[in-house]
């Protein structure tokens, strides 16, 4: 039974009725219609419940593994961005070691029944699930899979593990910390020397919306935009863009800033809804406000420009990273011709090329990788206005 039949009947019935049809009548009619055509005609294969249940669990395990694998990639790029740009974050900084540990209990409840198997983590001791390459934890020889029992002599809790460790290390500062570690049944104590980095959390959400956003509290990266990046340098450009919104004070004027503008507010609402918090369309409404738009395009261009410097300072080669805007233009074709809150993709593409040329020139001359501002010691505001005029 095809859609054409359904369409014809609906059109026919509406045309015959000169007066409005009540919702109740339409509902009864539609449900009767659907019931009459709902049964499949093919002889479907029988499936044992336990076979389906086993596949379901396999999918859960694969999903969780992939989530944490992608998150590790994001954490690694974010760590380099945070530490290379610590000066730009002013007082919003914290000591960190580039390691995340977890127990099944420390993860959201819905993951707990399969997290141990998926991530090879035990219930009785926190286990490192992510050690960022080149981080203090990695330099101290720690690897994913190491069990961690104590930090500076304090027992590491089995609940809220990652947050507890983050807080303890932040309080500790850059003095060496002692971690009691068990690997292959052998206990030892490892000394790790934290480094300072920007402290704004960078979170990873499973959400097919191709976007990233920044608020005062956090940066959000969606799986949609992570999948669009074809290199860590492109991901660094995305994270750098969001960090720039935060460091340049754009957030004081606009509650949220995102990486793409088309229906950006609605995308954030959906993203937050997916995370379990209903915004009631608040961001969409806010994005509709003209006040929030006043400097929007200028802010976005500035975040692209400064964000590219943040990526370059973290050691990423920004050459070719402008390709992400061509890919974005493909998935959001309306952004090729118009942009209300954000520059059109052609502007973003060309600007990253120009910024890369500027960065490469500074590298050749041995000059510091500082974005050009109107005057050396000015706050970002004049640069924003300059960008908004162009
Ligand atoms: Zn933005």
Automatic annotation (TrEMBL):
The protein's name in its UniProt record: PDZ domain-containing protein
GO (cellular component) term, any one: membrane
Comp. bias (Low complexity): 378-390
Protein's organism: Undibacter mobilis
Gene3D superfamilies on file: 2.30.42.10, Metalloproteases ('zincins'), catalytic domain
An MF annotation (GO) of this entry: metalloendopeptidase activity
Biological process according to GO: proteolysis involved in protein catabolic process
Compositionally biased intervals (Basic and acidic residues): 360-377
Region (Disordered): 360-390
Start and end residues of each PDZ domain: 95-185
């Amino acid at each position: 039974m095809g859609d054409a039949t359904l369409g014809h009947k609906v059109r026919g019935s509406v045309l015959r009725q000169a007066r409005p049809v009540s919702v109740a009548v339409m509902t009864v009619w539609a449900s009767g219609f659907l019931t009459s055509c709902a049964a499949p005609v093919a002889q479907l294969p029988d499936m044992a419940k336990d076979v389906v249940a086993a596949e379901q669990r396999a999918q859960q395990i694969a999903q969780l593994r992939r989530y944490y694998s992608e998150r590790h990639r994001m954490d690694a790029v974010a760590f380099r961005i945070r530490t290379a740009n610590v000066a730009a974050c002013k007082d919003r900084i914290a000591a960190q070691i580039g390691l995340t540990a977890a127990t099944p209990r420390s993860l959201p409840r819905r993951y707990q029944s399969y997290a141990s198997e998926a991530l090879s983590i035990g219930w009785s001791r926190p286990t490192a699930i992510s050690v960022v390459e080149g981080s203090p934890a990695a330099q101290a020889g720690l690897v994913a899979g190491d069990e961690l029992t104590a930090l500076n002599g304090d027992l590491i809790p089995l609940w809220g593990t990652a947050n507890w460790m983050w807080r303890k290390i932040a309080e500790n500062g850059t003095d060496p910390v002692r971690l009691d570690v068990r690997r292959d049944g052998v206990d030892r104590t490892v000394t790790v020397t934290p480094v300072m980095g920007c402290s704004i959390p960078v979170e990873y959400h499973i959400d097919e919306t191709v976007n990233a956003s920044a608020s005062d509290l956090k940066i959000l990266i969606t799986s949609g935009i992570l999948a669009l990046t074809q290199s860590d340098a492109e991901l660094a450009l995305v994270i750098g863009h969001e960090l720039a919104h935060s460091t340049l004070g754009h957030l004081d004027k606009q509650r949220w800033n995102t990486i793409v503008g088309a229906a950006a507010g609605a995308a954030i609402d959906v993203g937050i809804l997916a995370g379990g918090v209903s915004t009631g369309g608040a961001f969409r409404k806010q994005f509709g406000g003209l006040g929030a738009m006043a400097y929007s395009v200028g802010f976005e261009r500035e975040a692209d420009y400064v964000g590219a410097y943040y990526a370059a300072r973290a050691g990423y080669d920004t050459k070719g990273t402008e390709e992400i805007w061509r890919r974005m233009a493909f998935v959001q074709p309306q952004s090729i011709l118009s942009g209300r809150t954000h520059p059109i993709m052609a502007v973003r593409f060309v600007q990253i090329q120009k910024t890369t040329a500027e960065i490469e020139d500074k590298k050749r001359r041995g000059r510091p990788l500082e974005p050009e501002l109107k005057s050396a010691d000015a706050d970002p505001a004049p640069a924003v206005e300059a960008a908004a005029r162009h």
